[in-house]
Amino acid sequence: MQLVKSSLWKSLSCKLVSLFKLCFSVLLLDDCKLAKLYRMHTFEDITIHNCSPINFVSGFVQKFHEKKLRTTIITEWSLPNKNYIVSEKGRKITKISGNSWGNPILSTKPFETTPIFYFQMKILHAKVGCGGLFFGVSNTANPPTFSYSDPNYTICIYNQDNIGLDVDSVQHKNSCVASIGDVLAIVVDRIQDSILFYKNGKLAAVGKRKPSEMPILYAALWIFYADNTFEIGDFIPYVKLDNNV
Q1: Which carries the bigger pLDDT value, residue 63 or residue 194?
Q2: All structural domains of the chain with their residue ranges
Q3: How many Å from the N-terminal Cα to the C-terminal Cα in the chain?
Q4: Cα–chain-centroid distance for residue 31?
Q5: What is the C-alpha to C-alpha distance for residues 54 and 245, in angstroms, rounded to an integer?
Q6: Are the CB atoms for 136 and 149 separated by under 8 Å?
Q7: What are the tens digits of pLDDT across the range 98-117?
Q8: Are 233 and 73 spatial neighbours (Cβ–Cβ below 8 Å)?
Q9: Number of C-beta neighbours around residue 221 at 10 A
Q10: Residues near 191 by Cβ (< 8 Å), separated by ≥ 6?
């Protein structure tokens, strides 16, 4: 009996030491490594007997990291002309007429300068297989009319592959083809100094300019086709994003 108790105590001690080391190592992580640990969000290798995994470290990392993350639903937009309408308290944008690029739709306020800024948009209606959307950021509230592919002003992805309209702005990692039901997202990560684009939670492209080079950023949309509709919302949690290429 004494031998069993001794064995159990030894096992428990090892688990506690492992937990202590992990907690201590978290405190020493820089922001980039902390973000990676948070994304992984698994500590199932640390268990005590048949109990569920210890969630203390996971919760600690999550709360620490959430202070650096800002997930925003942008509802204030600057419309270029009467071809566009905004409804549902700024959450829905529709182009009602005119098949042309013209001037972009921009957020009226720049992104907050939090370490990580996360913004999402879902395509509700679009002309299938025809592209017609530039989605990204602008470093000015008044970009030139056709600057959707000019990295001096904007970093945008185009929702169609193999056309080359966005090659000056982004490096494609996976398909950027997006149509009805797809969720497009932008992460402005000032910790890793990168602008990342996602489609349905999967990394699609990386901006060729860095946030440090564009300290003031506005959300920017160029919509070509009439009747295209987009919804702004919080669809995919940040921790669910997949950076695998």
Answers
A1: 194
A2: 2-66, 69-240
A3: 54
A4: 17
A5: 31
A6: no
A7: 899 989 999 999 998 889 99
A8: yes
A9: 23
A10: 31, 32, 35, 68, 115, 116
Q: Which fold, 69-240?
A: Jelly Rolls (2.60.120)
CA-CA distance, 136 to 90, in Å (whole number)? 18
Whole-angstrom distance, CA of residue 119 vs CA of residue 125: 19
Rg for the chain, CA atoms, rounded: 22
Measured distance CA(178)–CA(209) in Å, rounded: 23
Question: Backbone phi, then psi, for 27, in 5-degree steps?
Answer: -65, -25
Question: In the predicted model, what is the mean pLDDT of residues 207-217?
Answer: 96
Distance CA 25, CA 22 (A): 5
pTM of the model: 0.75
- Share the mean pLDDT of the chain: 80
What does the alpha-carbon distance between residue 145 and residue 38 come to, in Å, rounded to a whole number?
40
Question: Reduced to 3 states, what is the DSSP secondary structure of residue 58?
Answer: helix
Mean pLDDT along residues 163-186:
94
The CB density around residue 138, as the number of other CB atoms within 10 Å, is 25
| Cα–Cα distance for residue pair 164/102, rounded to 1 Å | 19
